[in-house]
Amino acid sequence: MLRNALGKTFRFLGYTVQYGCIAHCAFEYLGGIVVCSGPSMEPTIQNSDVVFSENLSRHFCCIRKGDIVIVKSPNDPKSNICKRVIGLEGDKVCTSNPSDFLKSHSYVPKGHVWLEGDNLRNSTDSRCYGPVPYGLIRGRICLKIWPLNDFGFLRASPNSHRFLDD
């Protein structure tokens, strides 16, 4: 009887560890559900919108200009932020605010990306903390799940004029 109970307990623990490892790998490498908060990505993503973030793009270096990504915050590594990729390594980016009379530009260093929120007037982004290391990218948002009336792929940036091609 004791042997039977121990056998069932160890089998249960084995399955728990096994399925826990599978779930960890799925969330770490495939993707997951994310609830976005804050006004920095409005109007594209509103406060409390639920999105799906896929993680394969970051592993295969498939992040492109215009993608919306989930990133470990350079200011607070315990939190994640949601921003749009404006520039990749070697790209020339506008580093000034939209209201600045004189525009300043810089180049994104190797191994970094330039991130900005769609709501430029209410976003703490690369204009404040500079280029972000590629390694801080956690995933790429590809689908809005909630609210249901907004379900689908995300729309283009309202600030596409800030993407420089030279």
From TrEMBL:
The gene is Immp1l. CDD domains: S26_SPase_I. The keyword DNA damage does not apply. It comes from the Eukaryota. Gene3D superfamilies: Umud Fragment, subunit A. One of its GO terms (cellular component) is mitochondrial inner membrane peptidase complex. Heterodimer of 2 subunits, IMMPL1 and IMMPL2. This is Mitochondrial inner membrane protease subunit. Its EC number is 3.4.21.-. The active site is at S40, K83. The lineage of its organism: Eukaryota, Metazoa, Chordata, Craniata, Vertebrata. Residues 16-97, 103-146 form the Peptidase S26 domain. Belongs to the peptidase S26 family. IMP1 subfamily. It comes from Pheucticus melanocephalus. One of its GO terms (biological process) is protein processing involved in protein targeting to mitochondrion. It is an enzyme of class 3 (hydrolase). It is found in: Mitochondrion inner membrane. Keywords: Hydrolase, Membrane, Mitochondrion, Mitochondrion inner membrane, Protease. GO terms for molecular function: serine-type endopeptidase activity. It holds the Pfam family Peptidase_S26.
